[in-house]
Amino acid sequence: MKPCGRLVLQVARRMGSCKQKVSSCRQFSSEATAHDNIKVGTLCEMELAVAKQLNMKSHLPAPLSKQMDTLGEIVTLIREPIAEIASCMRIVDKNLPNLRLVLWGAFGTGKTVTLNQAVHHAYTNKWAIVHLRSAMELTRRVKEIEMSSFVSGRINDPSNAVAILQNFKQQNQHIWKILGVLLTEKDYEWSKSERTLKGKPITEIIEMGISAPFLASDCVGALFRELRRHAKDDKLKVLVAIDDANSLWGKTLVKRADRTYAPPSDLTLVVHFRRMISNDWTNGCVLMVADKKEVADARDELGVSRHTPLELFGEEGFEFVEPFVPIETTNYTESETDALYNYYVNKNWLASKAARSEEGRKQLMHLSAFNPYYYERLCAFN
């Protein structure tokens, strides 16, 4: 890691909260508005109205989304990674380059959940949120393409661009009035008949892209450009949260006219998100998840792929995102499993008598090897 990255990490950790013993204390999200109120070891409940606005049902892992429907609430455990992220977000300033954080760790240790906790934390502190559910959607799950009229050889992705704008609009309703008074810096000519004039609210760019899908890819770029500019001017703070961010430098399934696969650098939306990751703007925080699904072979049952940022981003991607603060997600401690176990017992999520016994508690803990994903799965079927 470069020296400036180490310095940021040291400052953030000094400003962070100390480790606390894990308890089953419940804390509502309204109580966790301030950065200082992130308490490691507490179970944080998010209001369902907020979860709906932040579109948690589609952004959280599927098992947790189903659990939310069944229990009628969304409760997550506050762990060290989200406390460290909150400490880093506290030092974001208009005079400092955007702070880049990379969440990494083994499968099932809570990278996506931590990312969504950070999104919720940004919401409670009235930040603008740019949240991408998975970068793989831009490279491998492209439904339709069209060639860009703005940059020769660039490939637009109308359906994903509209989805990005709709998600941005939904997740930023808490600051929509603020966005409505932020004005464009220049004229944007989308086509011969469509344009957004200088001095218009940047929300008009969003509405333009949603109403005209063939313009949506360019509208995403214009929106991101305006957000970076207003962040520099200290009009707002911006959180960029990207799951599977290493896929922005991975393989694509998008084919050109000659039937060859296009590199990620030819995809318009990938270029726009890379510009948001670059540290040439201030007053923002970029939180990326490095996930091995981009490089792992699902058919290889014996191979164990590495999950460190260098292996997952590759040389090109690693050099692009450096310097950054690495934040590792790990397996549960025994006290963390106890906190969740007590919650599941109180909510009758553990139905069998064997699972609700002391012996059952120990078996669930050790059968899951303290892995958060496997622990939740075992609890769901006992």
From TrEMBL:
Keywords: Mitochondrion, Ribonucleoprotein, Ribosomal protein, Transit peptide. One of its GO terms (biological process) is apoptotic process. It is found in: Mitochondrion. It holds the Pfam family DAP3. The keyword Ribonucleoprotein applies. InterPro entries: P-loop_NTPase, Ribosomal_mS29, Ribosomal_mS29_met. One of its GO terms (cellular component) is mitochondrial ribosome. Coiled coil: none annotated. The keyword Thylakoid does not apply. Belongs to the mitochondrion-specific ribosomal protein mS29 family. This is Small ribosomal subunit protein mS29. The lineage of its organism: Eukaryota, Metazoa, Ecdysozoa, Nematoda, Chromadorea.
